[in-house]
Amino acid sequence: MNHIKIDLDRRISSIDRNIFGGFIEHLGRCIYGGIYSPGSPLADQSGLRLDVIEALSRLRIPIVRYPGGNFVSGYRWMDGIGPREERPPRVDAAWNAVESNQFGTNEFIDFCRKIGTEPYIVVNCGDGDMREARDWVEYCNGTQDTALVRLRQKHGYEAPHAVKYWGIGNEVDGHWQIGYKTPEEYARAYLEFAKVMKWADPSIKLAASATSSWKGSIVERAQLLMEQASNFIDYLSIHWYVGNPENDFAQYMAVSELIEERLSAYEGLVRGLSLQQKLTRPISIAVDEWNVWYRTHPDHGNALNALEETYNLEDALLVAVQLNAFIRHSNSVRMANLAQLVNAIAPIMVSDDGIVLQTIFYPLEIYSQTCSGTSLDVFWKGETFSGGPYTGVRVLDVSAALDEGQRKLSVYVVNRSQTEAMETTISLDSGCFGGEVSAYVVNGSHIKSENTFKTPNAVNTVESTYKADHQTLFTYTFEPHSVTALVFSL
Questions:
Q1: pLDDT, tens digit (0-9, with 9 covering 90-100), for 151-207
Q2: Known catalytic membership, residue 289
Q3: Which of 289, 309, 314, 365 is catalytic?
Q4: Is 383 a catalytic site residue?
Q5: What is the 3-state secondary structure (H, E, C) of the chain?
Q6: Out of 99, 138, 171, 309, which one is annotated catalytic?
């Protein structure tokens, strides 16, 4: 018998809803032919696809990162504002495509307002300069009577956009990046960019690009950033993608341990450096690019179809495993952005006639819709497995959140067994369950089940209810290869 023990007093931290964020980039059909399709009968007057907007609204995404990604390291933001007929098409060196610049800053802000999300803009710290970055902040957020504010107003936006979140550069530690920078070069550049951007608007929150390759100078990059610019850093940005190229299910499921290692190590690194620098305010972690990605690779000869990954059920399990990790590490992970949202490595796929919700859509939906309050330090035990370099990995992957205001407990469980249903006792150390229990289960017939335009519902969410009146124990059987959210009243 598996056992999950909940002590409502063992609280980790408030959960920042920004961990359920997203990311869109000028890449393939993410924006053009995805989010933005002027002329489509399914688009509104501004060119935004209404079916995509409706699907994204279900995800309740609190924050969206834009415009990249690799793309931003060669991007000139002023190319994407003003009358569309005057916007210059440019070669996008990151993806070897032609960028029309028909979708830019103001279109992005309109998109964010349409789905009720906060914009998060990343500035060009590749081949861009600090004045360009500072001017972008003023154009978006300025309130004084200046040329850039007048320009925004001329473009139809009298009120400032009030963009709170800004990133300085993307994956600067990667040699694939336009404008790769050594740890010393980036720490110095970050400080100078941050200063002038903060001078333009002192209220903004800034993210430093810390680690994406997970090779080389991981510690040194964070150390130099915090030694030289800690007063200007709100988030340290880290990226990762996971996958199953070996087609080894157990090894794939055990990637949870690598994620735990990375987050725990980075938490310790930030704590140590904060102690060294005598910081009195926290510096958080933003996992502002993460997802499953391993089947597709950039095709510079066919950029319009770049990175259109078809996901299966086991990928959905891994998305939930990563969300569990963000909840368990909520004291440090205060933002996370699934990359990307539409078509390119995305939960939503678009055709001329409609959309399909990929398997990875459903765990993000149920977590985002049900998770709130404070994360709990959950104890759980039960059957184990071995995968890749890891042994003794628990078959169940668990996280939990307590919302005191709503007297609600949400327990999230990924059953990583291909064949075995896992009967599990969930116990409360104090208090009792208050009545109805809602269960949301993401599953399909087998781990390779895919949602496509031919089979759009092979994987979906099934909801059911149970009773747990005035009990301290609740027994539930988790289906094989499933993601489950149990939402209890207390």
A1: 999 999 999 999 999 999 999 999 999 999 999 999 999 999 999 999 999 999 999
A2: yes
A3: 289
A4: no
A5: CEEEEECCCCEEEECCHHHHEEECCCCCCCCECCCECCCCCCECCCCEEHHHHHHHHHHCCCEEEECCCHHHHHCCHHHHCCCHHHCCCEEECCCCEEECCCCCHHHHHHHHHHHCCEEEEEECCCCCCHHHHHHHHHHHHCCCCCHHHHHHHHCCCCCCCCCCEEEECCCCCCCCCCCCCCHHHHHHHHHHHHHHHHHHCCCCEEEEEEECCCCCCHHHHHHHHHHHHHHHCCEEEEEEEECCCCCCHHHHHCHHHHHHHHHHHHHHHHHHHHHHHCCCCCCEEEEEEEEECCCCCCCCCCHHHCCCCCCEHHHHHHHHHHHHHHHHCCCCEEEEEEECCECCCCCEEECCCCEEECCCHHHHHHHHHHCCCEEECCEEECCEEEECCEEEEECEEEEEEEECCCCEEEEEEEECCCCCCEEEEEEECCCCEEEEEEEEEEECCCCCCECCCCCCCCCEEEEEEEEEEEECEEEEEECCCEEEEEEEEC
A6: 171
